């Protein structure tokens, strides 16, 4: 899922301070699952942001709404109507949701309340960790299901580097070396021969280096 976290409250307050009325729009998708951008969080944000301590003058009036998936134009257009007199929309979705809202309501400023951080998984109670970088050319089949692109600090495809020590990455003592994990996993799978395969130079044109990517699916005609 896409993991996002709330921006600092003062930063959000500064970005909405000029408006008299602001719609806070929750998203029922990924950010709701990672407990940051759903309806409950939007209500909490509305309460917090209404406090005068964040403003030089009067705080804006906040109204909460929710869209099941802000990253889908049809949902946005069908289920969201800006409240009368609203000056801006404060989106609690990931960056894709913010941009979908901005395209759908191009006369209304849409302001992000979140910092979108990574594609990750829930690894323990309240703990999400990065697992995929969306590189467009998945190598998990050769790396024991552990992603070197997202989980190795240097994105090495033929690791480990010299900084790997006792299973830890040189970047920080708490961080496991992804390549140590890969080798251990391949050993337990009895597939250590996969480690001997040298990855060819990766085609980064299917990653972000190739510009914004898209996926088209045509509806079958019956
Ligand atoms: S190899 Fe690429 S697509 Fe596969 S998990 Fe890693 S970043 Fe994601
Ligand atoms: S120590 Fe391991 S995880 Fe860290 S940069 Fe080197 S190979 Fe990658």
CATH topology of the largest domain: Rossmann fold
**Which hetero compounds are present in the coordinates?**
iron/sulfur cluster
Shape: elongated
Percent helix? 25-40%
Number of strands: 7
Largest sheet: 4 strands, parallel
**Rg calculated over all Cα atoms:** 22 Å
| Fraction of residues in β-strands | 15-25%
Describe this structure in words.
The chain contains 7 helices and 7 strands; from the N terminus they run βαβααβαβαβββαα. The chain has 222 residues and is of the alpha/beta class. The protein folds into 2 domains: 2-117, Rossmann fold (3-Layer(aba) Sandwich), CATH 3.40.50; 133-201, no CATH class. The strands form 2 sheets. A 4-stranded parallel β-sheet has the order 3-2-4-5, sandwiched between helices. A 3-stranded antiparallel β-sheet has the order 1-6-7. Strand 6 and strand 7 (127-132) form a beta hairpin. It is elongated and about 65 Å long. One iron/sulfur cluster (SF4) binds next to helix 7. Residues 152-154, 156, 159-161, 163-164, 169-171, 177-179 line the site of one iron/sulfur cluster.
């Amino acid at each position: 899922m896409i993991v996002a976290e709330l921006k600092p409250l003062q930063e959000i307050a500064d970005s909405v301070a000029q408006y008299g009325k602001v719609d806070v729009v929750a998203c029922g998708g990924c950010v709701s699952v990672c407990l940051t951008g759903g309806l409950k969080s939007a209500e909490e944000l509305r309460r917090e942001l209404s406090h005068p301590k964040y403003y030089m003058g009067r705080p804006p009036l906040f109204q909460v709404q929710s869209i099941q998936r802000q990253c889908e134009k049809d949902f946005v257009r069908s289920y969201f109507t800006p409240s009368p007199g609203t000056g801006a929309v404060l989106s609690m979705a990931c960056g894709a949701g913010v941009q979908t809202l901005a395209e759908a309501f191009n006369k209304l400023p849409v302001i992000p309340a979140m910092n979108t951080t990574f594609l990750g998984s829930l690894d323990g109670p309240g703990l999400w960790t990065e697992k995929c970088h969306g590189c467009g050319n998945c190598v998990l089949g050769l790396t024991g299901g552990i992603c070197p692109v997202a989980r190795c600090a240097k994105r090495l495809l033929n690791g480990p580097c010299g900084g790997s020590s006792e299973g830890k990455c040189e970047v920080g003592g708490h961080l496991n070396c992804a390549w140590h994990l890969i080798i251990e996993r391949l050993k337990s799978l009895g597939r250590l021969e996969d480690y001997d395969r040298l990855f060819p130079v990766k085609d980064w044109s299917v990653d972000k280096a190739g510009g914004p990517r898209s996926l088209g699916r045509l509806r079958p005609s019956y």
